């Protein structure tokens, strides 16, 4: 089935003069969450130079030899480096990428790349992550207000200073692909919905590929057969999407929707290396997850993540069976 595209407006929300405009920003954010599931944030306090500096930090890591990156391997604590390892239920094949996933706390013990390889990497990364967390917390205040929770409700649930914080920052490097593929199929990031609370994605101008599928009512078949919208990357614009967890926490009022990084396949597509940075807001493992209407049974942050991983694994097994047939 050929991919179908359409141009759809993605709400753009400015955070300038945040405290004075919080009512206005909350109304814009809630409208975007209810009707689209995606929005972009501008005037958020990070300059293009701040973002490019973090991209440089990321590229310094990925430029290291694989045997050096392997000194900080992916672990069960959801941190570390992986390469060609993530398989999506929508494709049944590995994404052609590598990533280095970072956290704030003790899960990163012995998982930070040694200073002898990348001087200053840890300090620069934590400074950037702290500033992005600050942006996330402004958005969390608005979501809490919109759902009738106390204003610091989601901030408390996502306290990154606690040892059981699950929030992560993922540095991503999608490999350059050949313009002549000789029939081989590549996938940069197959269609998927995030299972976190809220994702903030940074992109580099000129490195296209992100496509979104806004407006779905529920997460069903991993975006297969749907109509997509291309998102042109702008360095200073943060692309945000609602995750499955916030959809549940809002009693399905807010929409978790599909997105992908499509592998280039036609003239005009970007075939070069693509770098992005994804900041996944995930609640502490002991946070209690239940919407104001109590549509779903209460679960902890740890239970929600475990259940999401089980669903993802089950869907992947079904996909692999269909490929085998």
Structure summary:
This protein is of the alpha+beta class and 325 residues long. It has one domain: Jelly Rolls, CATH 2.60.120.330.
Stretches where pLDDT is under 50 for at least 5 consecutive residues are: none
- Write down the CATH topology: Jelly Rolls
- Sheet-strand content, in percent, reads 15-25%
Radius of gyration: 19 Å
**Mind summarizing the main beta sheet?**
8 strands, mixed
Corresponding CATH superfamily: B-lactam Antibiotic, Isopenicillin N Synthase, Chain
> How far is the N terminus from the C terminus?
19 Å
Provide the domain count: 1
SSE sequence, one letter per element? EEHEHHEEHHEEEEEEHEEEEH
The strand count comes to 15
If you average the pLDDT, what whole number results? 87
- Please state the second-level CATH architecture: Sandwich
Helix content: 25-40%
Count every helix, treating DSSP H or I runs of 4 or more residues as helices: 7
Q: Strand order of the main beta sheet, please?
A: 2-3-11-8-13-6-5-4
Please write the CATH class name.
Mainly Beta
* Structural shape: globular
SSE-based structural type: alpha+beta
What's the SSE blueprint?
Layout: E1 4-5, E2 12-14, H1 18-35, E3 38-42, H2 48-62, H3 66-69, E4 80-83, E5 97-102, H4 121-147, H5 153-157, E6 168-174, E7 189-192, E8 198-203, E9 210-213, E10 227-230, E11 238-242, H6 244-249, E12 258-261, E13 274-281, E14 288-289, E15 299-300, H7 301-324
Parallel strand pairs: 1-10, 2-3
Antiparallel strand pairs: 3-11, 4-5, 5-6, 6-13, 7-12, 8-11, 8-13, 9-10, 9-12, 14-15
Helix pairs in contact: 1-4, 2-4
């Amino acid at each position: 089935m050929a991919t179908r595209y359409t141009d759809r407006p993605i709400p753009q929300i400015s955070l300038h003069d945040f405290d004075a405009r919080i009512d206005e920003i909350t109304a814009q954010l809630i409208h975007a969450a209810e009707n689209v599931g995606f929005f972009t944030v501008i005037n958020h306090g990070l300059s293009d130079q701040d973002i490019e500096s973090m991209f440089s930090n990321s590229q310094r890591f990925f430029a290291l030899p694989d045997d050096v990156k392997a000194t900080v391997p992916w672990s069960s604590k959801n941190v570390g480096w992986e390469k060609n390892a993530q398989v999506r239920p929508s494709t049944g094949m590995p994404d052609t990428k590598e990533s280095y996933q970072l956290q704030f706390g003790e899960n990163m013990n012995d998982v930070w790349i040694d200073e002898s390889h990348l001087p200053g990497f840890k300090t620069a990364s934590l400074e950037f992550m702290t500033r992005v967390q600050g942006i996330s917390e402004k958005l969390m205040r608005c979501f809490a207000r919109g759902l009738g929770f106390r204003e610091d409700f989601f901030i408390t649930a996502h306290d990154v200073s606690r040892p059981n914080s699950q929030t992560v920052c993922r540095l991503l490097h999608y490999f350059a692909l050949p313009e002549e593929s000789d029939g081989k199929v590549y996938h940069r990031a197959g269609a998927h919905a995030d299972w976190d609370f809220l994702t903030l994605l940074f992109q580099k101008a000129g490195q296209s590929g992100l496509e979104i599928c806004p407006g779905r009512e529920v997460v069903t078949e991993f975006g297969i057969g749907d109509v997509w919208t291309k998102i042109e990357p702008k360095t200073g614009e943060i692309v945000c999407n609602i995750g499955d967890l916030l959809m549940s926490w809002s009693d399905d009022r807010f929409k978790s929707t599909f997105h992908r990084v499509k592998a280039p396949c036609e003239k005009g597509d970007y075939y070069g290396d693509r770098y992005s940075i994804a900041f996944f807001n995930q609640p502490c493992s002991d946070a209690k997850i239940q919407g104001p209407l109590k549509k779903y049974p209460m679960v902890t942050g740890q239970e929600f993540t475990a259940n999401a991983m089980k669903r993802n694994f089950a869907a992947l097994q079904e996909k692999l069976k269909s490929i085998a047939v």
